[in-house]
Amino acid sequence: MLRWWMIGLVMLGTILNYLTRSTLSVAAPYMLPELGIGEKEYSWITGAFQLGIMLQTFAGYLLDVVGLRYGLAACAATWSLITAAHALAGSWPMLAVLRGTMGLAEGSAQPGGLKVVAEWFPARERGFAGGVYNVGASFGSMLAPPLVAASIYYWSWHAAFLITGALGLAWAAAWYFLYRPLRVHPRMSATERDYVLSGQEHASIDLPARPPLLSFFKRRNVWGIAIPRMLADPTWGTLTFWLPLYLTTVRGFDLTQIAMFAWLPFLTADVGCMFGPILVAWFQKRGFTLLNARRTAFTIGAIMMTSMMFVGFVDSPYVAIALLSLGGFAHQTLSVTCITLATDLFPAHEVGTVAGIAGTVANFGILVFSLAIGSLVATVGYDPFFIALGVLDLFGALWLWAVVRDPARGATA
Q: pLDDT tens for residues 172-182?
């Protein structure tokens, strides 16, 4: 059962990763006026984060080369210290520099988590394991509104960054001292090790040579995963970076209401993280191949995402929260399904690189969408952006069915 303790430790790190990146968005309605920062400058700050995290291709390749123990510990310590440094920010350029470097370090989260899933779990358990650690993304974002609101209420927005940064440093130390690779972990029993290794599919077996980085960009399945993620992840970026501002400026929420309601879409997203793997398992029991089961689950999530189109058209702010919560559930249902595909289609020693490339493309989608919100929201409002979020994943589902090929059936990955 050591593998489940390991994925639990990864989930805790993911919680803190997304908690630290969400701290700014919750504090934004209160710190931005104090620092004289408007919505356009805020979009540049969030854009700097996306530019940094887009380099996770190199973070994934680094983890494939140096290993998970040293790589993730160093990255986590770095983004935790940068988070704490936010408390010293006095202008939007300083915040932009901090967010950019923070994004570079935090880009290790998804490649690192997927490498643990690929190396520590047999094929039949990878979907559920991926769902477990991805719960951390939703749970960390869910923790941010009440934790940051409480910090602002009792101390200041500066304290929120210091607290979340300190929590990240504690996890970095825990990871360094507790993690070892599966084959040499002193607490791994021979029975569990054999169980994991015997259950690895062809695409997850380590091969002796690691292809050069540029060769990955020529592979069909890399783009088969990356493009749907680019179309899907603007939903997560909008919920993470813009939801508190939307609720404050459009729906009239105060600090107490932000603390009470802004975390709900992330709570339902937690449920979506587990619903996706359950759907995949259900379809597999009915004769679907693993690849087709994942594509079908993604498609169902994309259909549910159409609820986001109506957020701006309802009068009640609580109905709007309900629709946003359904969107969070649908997004994580399809997102965890698409993310886990990397462990099905590529060998374990390539998963970090593939996940990094897909993450880079996904965060490019967030960057473009966030800059568009910052530039246009003052003139067109949020409604067109919610409509776009409702339809983008339908195109992602079509792409997934048309482009991705099963390497076990002889197609080129």
A: 999 989 888 77
pLDDT in tens, 354-389: 877 888 888 889 888 888 888 888 788 889 999 999
User: What's the CATH number where 173 sits?
Assistant: 1.20.1250.20
Q: Say if 214 falls within a structural domain.
A: no
Please indicate, yes or no, if residue 391 is contained in any of the structural domains. yes
Q: What is the pLDDT of residues 56-82, one digit of tens each?
A: 777 777 777 777 888 889 889 998 999
Range of the structural domain that residue 176 is part of: 2-199+224-409
- Write down the pTM of the prediction: 0.71
213 found inside a domain: no
| Cα 185 off chain centre by | 28
